[in-house]
Amino acid sequence: MKVVQFTIPVSKEHTIVVQEDVLPHYYNHLHRHREVQIEWVVEGSGILIAGNYMQRFESGEVYIIGANQSHIFKNDEAYFNPEEKKQIHSVSIFFNPTQLHQNILSLPEMASIRKFVDGLHNGYQIPESALPLVQKTISELKQNKDSMRVASFISLLHLFSTIRDIKPLATNNSEQIISEVEGIRMDQIFQYLVSNYKRHISLAEISEISNLTPQAFCRYFKKHTDKTFISFLNEVRVNEACKIIISGKFDSFSDVSYQTGFDNVTNFNRVFKKIMGKSPREFHKDFRERVG
């Protein structure tokens, strides 16, 4: 199954397609496809952008990407350095919800699963408490063939439908209607911001990258992400700051501020707390207490 810009060809001979990859890094461009994608990040880390959602992803996590929801699993810089010898390991499950409705979901016994599938537009993150059972079920599905694979798939959807604290990703569905040309433009914008977040990026600079006037760019970006350019850039920076804090590879919070592109530590502390709900120091303390 080759991933191309905004299109994934899926075999018409199968209702469920399972793909296991071990690669240097994830596909590095914003893309979408008509299939729902269940993604188990067996090994890997970076930033996930899905619609207007953005957050770090780590090894062991499981996500559901909605049909036609533009997304990118953007790996950390180290994955693009051959000397680091890092790799990602993923198990992806693709299914077309329309096709599923025409056969499996049409059964009356599938009412609760049908309701869950109908609500997948914006995607979900599986909570940590449910991960062991979800990972076990995905492993069984991957090993099974034919009718047993379908049975495992139904079990997985049933499991998803019973998780009470499942976390939605994007908060709106408007960005799904963007054209392929707009999608390529958004990809160029995201790639530039994620690659250059460590330095000052002016509105004039990013507008030029997107071939829009500053005023038009602001409207365009807000329309497709439901965020301002500055708030998106700050989220990228804070997500990277979280990674540094968790790694413990910093001398001071002022050092973290400098590494992630903030102009001063006061602004860094203010923005971090606004996005994460706690200060960098509190975040560090809470993480150390969790890991013991």
From TrEMBL:
Gene3D superfamilies according to UniProt: Homeodomain-like, Jelly Rolls
SUPFAM superfamilies cross-referenced by the UniProt entry: Homeodomain-like, RmlC-like cupins
InterPro entries registered for this protein in UniProt: Homeodomain-like_sf, HTH_AraC, HTH_AraC-typ_CS, RmlC-like_jellyroll, RmlC_Cupin_sf
Pfam families the UniProt entry points to: HTH_18
Annotated transmembrane regions: none
Record key words, sorted: DNA-binding, Transcription, Transcription regulation
GO molecular function, one term: sequence-specific DNA binding
Record has Transcription regulation as a keyword: yes
Keyword presence, Transcription: yes
Domain HTH araC/xylS-type: 187-286
PANTHER family: ARAC-FAMILY TRANSCRIPTIONAL REGULATOR
Protein name, per record: AraC-type DNA-binding protein
Organism: Dyadobacter psychrophilus
